[in-house]
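[step 3/7] fold_predict: job queued, chain A
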Amino acid sequence: MSLQVSWRGLITPLLLIAGVAVVTFLGVLGGDQVQTSLVEMLIRMVVVVGIWVFVGNSGIISFGHVGFMCVGAYAAAWATVDPNWKSIMLTGLPDWLQNGQYPFPFAVIGGAVLAAVVALLLGAAIMRLSGIAASIATFAFLMIVNSVYSNWDSVTGGTSSIIGIPTVVGPWVAFGFAAGAILLAYAFKVSRYGLMLRASREDEVAAKASAINIVRVRLVAFVISAAIVGLGGALWAHFLGVLTADSFYLSLCFITLAMLVVGGLGSLSGAVLGVIVVTIVVEVLRTLEGGVTLGKTMISLPPGSQEIGLGIVLALIMIFRPTGLTRGQEVQWPKRWSRPAAPSVEAATAPSLGE
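[step 4/7] structure written:
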């Protein structure tokens, strides 16, 4: 019985990973533009899944997780950029970081760890808050990160860009990290901490009465979530090869939260599906903005149509499916292919229509 439960418990993440693998395989067959969009989508999937670990399980909307992505991206860049460039442009770095050049795995782990440490310090202060107060506190964190990274010239380059970051993230590398993020997020969901955090989301008073330490379980989720998002930031740095602080601000915050809302906050499947759907919508609008030729007629949308279209999609989702495309449900193996389940107590005792 225990093996059956374990296998069934793995069906959802395995189906999600298989679906993402199919999308990746199809994207790799496309041209350079398609592959670029594919890698962007997979890295954003890491970030959105990371955000879901906290937001989806706690019910607290966080506007600050893009700040952790910024922290992870810059930490990874500091580790892998040419020391000669760092000695000229980033004179405020410690010697071991300024004069060293470390491999990609070290940079990714460093980005995730630094984001987790920052989250631990921040979360210890704000995890006692709930609802809109906690959300505003996370937004304040995002503003602080943007201000610090835009003005700390000797460490971040200020408004200048950090260039020369090795671009080593391709479609399959990004897929590997996306699959790992899905497994880690699902492991947290089915863990004791995930269950306690969702209990506090549904009824905080009842959770406290059940001896659940809400601050602690929120903090654990916050740190794990920030580590995954920071890892996504490190991947982003090694995909683009150049960093500026302004790329980690309101626009990216909006699109990542939109992906989460469109798919559905209540499930990991919603986070994964939301990234794919929103990416397709954005890419279609981007193509139409660039112009499409139909016969002898060129059709193009005005600039800014991406943001308007995404806003319309988000509004329609909120009106017609407020719980997202997945309605808060996880993807499951089709019932007709599954072994018939034993009737539940409710089904066995329910009166039939003929009685």
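[step 5/7] annotate
Residues 85 and 306 are 36 Å apart (CA to CA).
Confidence is low (pLDDT under 50) at residues 1-5, 341-355.
exit 0
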